[in-house]
Specification:
By secondary structure, this protein is α+β, with helices and mostly antiparallel strands. The chain contains 1 helix and 3 strands.
Length: about 60
Amino acid sequence: MDYILGSCMEHLEFVIDEFVDEVELAPNIVRVTEFTGDDQERPTRCLLCEKPVEFILFK
C-alpha cells in the first residue's frame, strides 16, 4: 500500500480529510476486521487520539 492511515469512529471524517489533503484522492475505507493487507502495515492507533483503530484508510 502506498499510503495508509487508521481512525477511530469519532475521528473518521477528519482522517478522511487528512488523507485527501495528502494524496489528493478519495481513500478506500474498510473496517479493521475486514482489512486484508499486511499486519505490519496496519496502523493500530487512531491518527488523532491513540484509541484503537476501527477503520483503515488506504490508497
